Amino acid sequence: MATSSTGASSASSTLRSSSSEEDFQQILDERKRKRMLSNRESARRSRMRKQKHLDDLMGQVSQLTKDNNQILTSMNITTQLYLNVEAENSVLRAQMIELSTRLQSLNEIIDFINSSNGVFENDHNFDQTTHHHHQINDDTFMNPWSSFSINQPIMASADMITY
Fold it and tell me: pTM of the full predicted structure?
């Protein structure tokens, strides 16, 4: 009987050994399944983070594009205003040159009249002494500027003339 008890114990040991191998395999399979689920969940979270990051970047691109368009529009408006002001300044410069030239001409005329006053008065005195029959009070005719202060230059400003 000893042999049979040894054979039975050997068979039970084989059964236990195969049962423990199955249990071990089940434990390994369970761990593998849990790891696969954990990896799937981790991959899902990673994809969600990646998608959120991509969505954030796309939102940034959209906002930056909008800001860029606003800046370009503002630059175009500012450039147009600058060109308008530059054109207006050019017109004003031309008007200033024209008015300065006119003023200089008028001042030259006044200087000429002031320097010629003695000549006209001498001629006037000559006419009165030699031609008594043409004796007319020619002061206003010969010197039309006598009622004004001739020694003052004529001053003009750009806002006096409107076009």
Answer: 0.45
